[in-house]
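thought: user wants a sequence for this fold. calling inverse folding tool.
action: design(structure=
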């Protein structure tokens, strides 16, 4: 029997009865659990986005940048600025399914596990009633081009309009995804900033609950539950949570990696696609958008962060970028270091925890210091000067649409993916963890390099 909303429950946008039955069941259950004031079913339209942006500006969460078309700055709570690996868990019955076995007395550094039973106890002390006073937004989104044989669909509910606006950039989100989903299964995503509105401080511009933050993944149920953080890495559940952690348990014949994808064309016109695996802040975006200095070479970007790869019927390794936006680290980006990125986020971009200038521009370490303007730091400190802490948080971000990148490859949204010819590995190596464990044979091997990051 299909779950129903409470009698006379306000649906301020969309038609609950028109949702697929499985989606109705999921949403109604979360309404009962979280007790929001009303429901908003997102369609992903430009008009909807404009309305939510205005709402966020009215609430003081977003500030427009006058020098740029449809660009905004958000400042988070200083305690909510990055992914929190210490509070991120994979929840399975068998610990060995989730993380490598470590020697007795040794704490591993490759993920965290908690039993399903224990995590459910933790979540049952958090989610009930957490959305009181807030709107619950419902988003259908596709990771990968809609209709691709390897794309996956998720439904996320959240009480953050900021999350909705960023998910519209980072994923294919909206009513067209709902229509394609039909009665099929989907990944269930629940997110809350973790504090009822009545308990929020009157001057609070960024609701969150960092002391009780937890991000839980249930691979067997294909479900993600995130509580207490509004930061993108913890709240945009299509990204690391879905595209890497949950997706890797869905398709055993598809491989899900923290990789950028780029096309390289040599002076003879021969084009090859390669991927590169580096951890966060190791240069994937800069490499994916590199401007060649060798005459005759051309670089095109397919994706800068995540790759889903598989072997086709002819045995060719292929890859898609499951995302539709860039969620890149801002500091260090400039027309000197990454001119392509700079051109990408000149419009339709949401910046988080960067500084802003008095004439309506963004600023961070690595950009030339502007003349005759005042700078307000990411902490809201006006008239910032060099030496007075950082202007922008080191993990400040830009969230920009992929199709704004001037070197996006023509095949970046091809449902069949692009053929991969080489894989580059690199990274910051934790003590005791080799860069490569084992290769089955030379053909299976990759091009390995160790990038030492100080």
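)
observation: tool returned 454 residues.
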């Amino acid at each position: 029997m299909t779950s129903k909303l409470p009698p006379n429950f306000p649906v301020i946008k969309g038609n609950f009865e028109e949702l697929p039955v499985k989606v109705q069941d999921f949403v109604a259950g979360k309404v009962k659990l979280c007790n929001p004031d009303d429901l908003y079913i997102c369609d992903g339209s430009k008009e909807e986005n404009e309305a939510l942006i205005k709402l966020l500006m009215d609430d003081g969460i977003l500030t427009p940048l006058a020098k740029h078309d449809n660009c905004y700055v958000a400042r988070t709570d200083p305690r909510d600025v990055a992914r929190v690996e210490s509070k991120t868990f994979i929840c399975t019955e068998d610990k060995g399914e989730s993380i490598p076995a470590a020697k007795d007395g040794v704490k591993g550094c490759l993920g965290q596990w908690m039993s399903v039973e224990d995590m459910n106890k933790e979540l049952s002390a958090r989610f009930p009633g957490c959305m009181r006073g807030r709107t619950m937004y419902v988003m259908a989104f596709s990771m990968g081009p809609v209709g691709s044989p390897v794309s996956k669909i998720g439904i996320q509910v959240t009480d953050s309009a900021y999350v909705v606006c960023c998910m519209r950039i980072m994923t294919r989100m909206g009513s067209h995804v709902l229509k394609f989903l039909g009665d099929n299964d989907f990944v269930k995503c629940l997110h809350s900033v973790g504090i009822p509105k009545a308990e929020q401080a009157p001057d609070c511009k960024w609701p969150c609950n960092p002391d009780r933050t937890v991000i839980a993944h249930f691979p067997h149920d294909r479900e993600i539950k995130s509580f207490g953080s509004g930061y993108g890495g913890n709240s945009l559940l299509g990204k690391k949570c879905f595209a890497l952690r949950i997706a890797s348990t869905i398709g055993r014949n598809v491989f899900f990696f923290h990789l950028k994808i780029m096309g390289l064309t040599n002076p003879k016109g021969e084009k090859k696609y390669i991927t590169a695996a580096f951890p966060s802040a190791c240069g994937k975006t800069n490499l994916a958008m590199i401007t060649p200095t060798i005459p005759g070479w051309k670089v095109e970007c397919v994706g800068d962060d995540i790759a889903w790869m598989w072997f086709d019927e002819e045995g060719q390794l292929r890859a898609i970028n499951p995302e539709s936006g860039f969620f890149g680290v801002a500091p260090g980006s400039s027309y000197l270091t990454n001119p392509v990125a700079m051109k990408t986020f000149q419009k339709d971009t949401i910046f988080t925890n960067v500084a802003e200038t008095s004439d309506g521009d963004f600023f961070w370490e690595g950009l030339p210091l502007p003349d005759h303007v005042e700078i307000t730091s990411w902490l809201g400190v006006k008239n910032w000067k060099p030496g007075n802490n950082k202007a922008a948080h080191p993990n400040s971000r830009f969230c920009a649409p992929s199709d704004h990148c001037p070197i996006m490859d023509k095949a970046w949204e091809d449902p069949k993916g692009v053929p991969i010819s080489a894989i580059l590995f690199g990274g910051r190596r934790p003590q005791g963890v080799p860069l490569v464990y084992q290769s089955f044979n030379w053909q299976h091997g990759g091009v390995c390099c160790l990038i030492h990051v100080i």
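thought: summarizing for user.
answer: Here is the designed sequence. Residues 233 and 291 are 28 Å apart (CA to CA).
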